[in-house]
Amino acid sequence: MPQPPSPKAAHAPTPTPTGRSIIEGAFVEAGESVSRAAFRALNPATGTPTGPECFAATPAEIDRAARAAERDARAYASLPREKRAAFLGRIADEILALGEALPALAAAETGLPASPRLASERDRAVLQLRSMAHAVREGAWAEPILDHADPDRKPIPRPDLRRVLVPLGPVAVFGAGNFPIAYSTAGTDTASALAAGCPVVVKGHPGHPGTGELVAQAVTDAAVATGMPTGVFAFLHAGGARENHVGAELVRHPAVAAVGFTGSHAGGMALARLAADRPVPIPVFAEMGSVNPVFLLPAALSRDPVGLAERLFASATASAGQMCTCPGLFFLARGDGADAFLKALASLFHRAEPMVMLSPRVRALYASTLASLAKAKGVEVRAGAAEQPEPRPGSPVTASPALLRTTLAAFEADPALARECFGPAALAVVCDRPDDLLHAASIIPGSLTATIISASPDGALALGLRDLLIPRAGRLISNGVPTGVEVAPAMVHGGPYPATNRPDASAVGPTAIRRWTRPVCFQNFPDELLPHELKDANPLNLARSEDAVYTPPRPSR
Ligand code: NAP
């Protein structure tokens, strides 16, 4: 039987997607199975199909990818740290080597601008991969803790205990449609799982299959160039008649040990339920939607209402409001500053042109959520239209921005007003008195972020809000906007439910590696049988403290 072409050979010199999944370092054969579901991406800026016909992975292909990952999991996990780091660094290089073809293709499949939006997303993915490589080299992510033996302890001696994080095994990764590069095929979940020592099987997103496959080719080339076992990475196309099925079958596969998901609340929770119902339940780290409330305090509002309106409008409508950190709720108290702010904000929403949405499905969900918000009791449309006309087939997939307004009493009476409206819309909740903002902060759902806009006379109120918002958000922002997630060790991209199902985790920064690990303790093991991280000779362990509890050093940037 002729060998399937290698991704490297197929994409040299001009990389192009083929529409075929990549398993064990090679494209799957066309016609490998008769039960193939074909689909094509849609260019939402034109409303016309783009890219090649793509073939959703079959059950047999899913099984092959998962089994290969399981087979090679131990070999990959036990590679020297330097080799794993070199692999991650090489993925970054291969992605850069795709040049401007990558953002251009992502733009054609998502309608997001190639520059600067998608080019900077590509650079962000590269930075993530390199910072994961750095973390792997440094080794502190494994959080070794050494409790030395105390043979003289009374009444009984204390054993030697050494604890370290070990990789879980194959991780299934689901990327989001709105970040086709940085939260997709080689995005933060894949980078952190590979850093932890886990093989990865990516379920491609049907909204950007070509972009996903092109990046998968880059990962595969990097794996070949750095001598990785072939099961370390696979990419499965999903879409058409097999939409949902490929992902569900992957999550149910017995070889899969954990799931990384970025996407909608409905999708994340569906997969979390599937994982919990398996004969052997597995962890799912689902990063889901978020409303990202902003609290505008009176002194700050009266100082610069127009400037604040401009900054928050830009943040709420960035990428047509299709970012998980776009602010969707503005809380403010009646007053001159609030009036001036709302007037300026309404004018910006009113003047805004229709925006290209990611897909007809995302547009339709935006339109229906917006319509039901606008119909809710006590809600008025301040700017824009609540009814979004459906674009004709073959025409651009657009939607118009909208600003809604309500009172705190109406907001409290209807929990549906606090749900994410994924698109260029925001709801202003006007309170009677500044202190009502504290009550508002105590009734909002969990979010990725919460923002406090304050000036010094607002100090006491800002402090009260901070304390109420800590349990409700993963990242608190002072006098800024929530969009723009820095890739850095201190970053927390996560938050309480419903923003995620795992409030203990961050999807961004080296601490994201922890998600794909579990702790193991070695009791009284001789040095020669201990993993590298726990040996006395490990330079990290020279820093251990007197009470024998080791605190990992802060990873440097
Ligand atoms: P989505 O519709 O949930 O799709 C994401 C993935 O989930 C798709 O690959 C889809 O696979 C899969 N999926 C969804 N429902 C499923 C089900 N019932 N069974 C199996 N698989 C299922 O989300 P999206 O439209 O791509 O992304 C937009 C959402 O992501 C927004 O809500 C946004 O706020 C959120 N988001 C969150 C973050 C974060 O970090 N928290 C970042 C970016 C985006 P199939 O296509 O095969 O069905």
Structure description:
This protein is of the alpha/beta class and 557 residues long. The protein has two domains: 7-258 and 271-285 and 509-513, Aldehyde Dehydrogenase, Chain A, domain 1, CATH 3.40.605.10; 294-478, Aldehyde Dehydrogenase, Chain A, domain 2 (3-Layer(aba) Sandwich), CATH 3.40.309. 35% of the residues lie in helices and 18% in strands. The chain contains 16 helices and 21 strands. The protein has helices spanning 7-11, 59-77, 81-97, 101-110, 114-138, 188-196, 209-225, 245-252, 265-276, 298-303, 305-316, 336-351, 360-375, 408-413, 436-443, 459-469; strands at residues 22-23, 26-27, 38-43, 48-55, 145-147, 161-167, 171-174, 200-203, 233-236, 258-262, 284-287, 293-296, 329-333, 355-356, 380-383, 398-399, 402-407, 425-431, 447-453, 473-478, 517-523. The strands form six sheets. The protein has a seven-stranded mixed beta sheet. The chain has a five-stranded parallel beta sheet with strand order 9-8-7-10-11, sandwiched between helices. It is globular. It starts with 6 loop residues before the first helix and ends in a 34-residue tail after the last strand. The relative contact order is 0.13. Bound molecules: NADP nicotinamide-adenine-dinucleotide phosphate.
Structural class: alpha/beta
Structural shape: globular
CATH fold description of the largest domain: Aldehyde Dehydrogenase, Chain A, domain 1
Q: Helix proportion of residues, in percent? A: 25-40%
Ligand catalogue:
NADP nicotinamide-adenine-dinucleotide phosphate
Q: How many β-strands, per DSSP? A: 21
Specify the CATH homologous superfamily of the largest domain.
Answer: Aldehyde Dehydrogenase, Chain A, domain 1
Calculate the mean pLDDT score and round it. 93
N- and C-termini, Cα separation: 49 Å
